[in-house]
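Shift notes (night). Ran Protein krasavietz while the centrifuge was going.
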Amino acid sequence: MSQKVEKPVLSGQRIKTRKRDEKEKYDPNGFRDALVQGLERAGGDLEAAYKFLDGAGSKLDYRRYGEVIFDVLIAGGLLLPGGSVSMDGESPKTNTCIFSASEDMETMRNFEQVFVKLMRRYKYLEKMFEEEMKKVLVYLKGFEPQQRIKLARMTALWIGNGCVPPSVLLVLVNEHLLKDNLALEFVLEVFATVKQERGVTSLVTALKKGQLEGRLLEFLPLNRRSEEVLASSFASRGLAELLRLHRAQASQEARRELTAALLDELAEDKPVRDLIQELRDMAQKHAIPDHEIVAIIWQCVMSRGEWNKKEELLAEQAAKHLRHYTPLLAAFAHSAKAEIALLTKVQEYCYENMSFMRAFSKLVLMLYKTNVLSEEVILKWYREPNSTKGKVMFLDQMKKFVEWLQSAEEESESGEDED
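Came back to this:
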């Protein structure tokens, strides 16, 4: 039987961990105390407050406690969930903060400079500040009405100077902030301040950058979410330009939706009469005019074609493909404006798709013979085309047909005179 061999025991001194290698205990209260004491020594002088913050970065751990810096500068102390300030510790609160400041724009701009310079000096604070704002805005309900106004004005300045992206406002789309109009009142103050401070162009640019222009309704309480309430709320703060932007965006979305729906229905080979009714319903719902509908129909119908590479066969093939959909085009091309829009679309399509350049007049003739385009509109287009694309070539193609239309018109007029 073999003897059990004992494992050797390691002996020697225990190596002590050096102080600097030990992970320091997370102590936001201690960091806050140091920050508050330094800010209090500045005695409300923001220039002195910034000098303290600038120098303190070499002694205090800004990388670890960046969130605490912003809590203190905004609310005066450590923010607790819900928006109240923690009063634990030696120095829990300072009055050198946005919430204790005057709400006039000069004071707000002075505070803006403290944030801008601090983040310029310590670049890593920029990302922390964006996260901080997402947290602070969720606590909005816990702040006093005047504090909310100050925060909204500061948010406008921060959006204007690029410290935070406009999309940060989307955290307000939260049920507990929507139902009491808190989200709506806050964004209205933000938008009105951006307009006042930087002008309407900057405001529109900010909304587009944050992709907010199509989401303004989301800031309204669910039980009041309508275009009428949005219009009156924004108009009351002199923000009519945003309403126009919102409507344009909503209209664009509706057109995309209608285009996608029509492409699906064309792929399913739905009967044309059903397509007409469904398009009418969607057009009415979204207030899309016929001259835009007819352009969408052309675009969708032509995207379904698989075209012959031989140019001489292409015109006949395209005319045959289109002929099936002429009742659909005719249903929406019953005004001169809609007919011109369609004819311009045909012109631009034939110009942009080189193989169709010689097919233009044949397609127009087919649309005339199927009562989609009237002779009055064709003659008007010939005299003054809306688009310059391929204009010389297409006018030349149409010359004989137009001469025939004109002579037929003259004969008709002379026949009426004899009667």
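Residues 342 and 380 are 13 Å apart (CA to CA). DSSP finds 19 helices and no strands in the chain.
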